[in-house]
Amino acid sequence: MYRKVKWQELTAAQQVGIILMAIVQFALLGAALWDIRHRPAAEINGSKLAWTLLSFINFIGPMAYFLIGRRRPEADL
Hints:
By secondary structure, the protein is mostly helical. The protein has a domain at 25-71. It is 57% helix and 0% strand. The chain is built from 3 helices and no strands. The longest helix has 27 residues, at 12-38. The chain is elongated and about 50 Å long.
C-alpha cells in the first residue's frame, strides 16, 4: 500500500526540485494572467475568460495560452 511521504522525509534535492517547479509554475501563471489582462481581446484566440480559467491548469494552461492562445502578427509581404 502507498504511504504518504512527509516534507521532512524528502531529501534536500527533492525539496529544492519541488520549490523550483512551484516557482516556475507561478511565474508561468503570473505571466499568462498579466498578458491576458493587458492584451486586447482582438489579439487573443478565444475568450479572455476561457484563457484565464485554463491558465490555472498546472503548466499546461499557461503554455497552451502562449503557444496557441495569442494571435500571431500578420507578416507584411
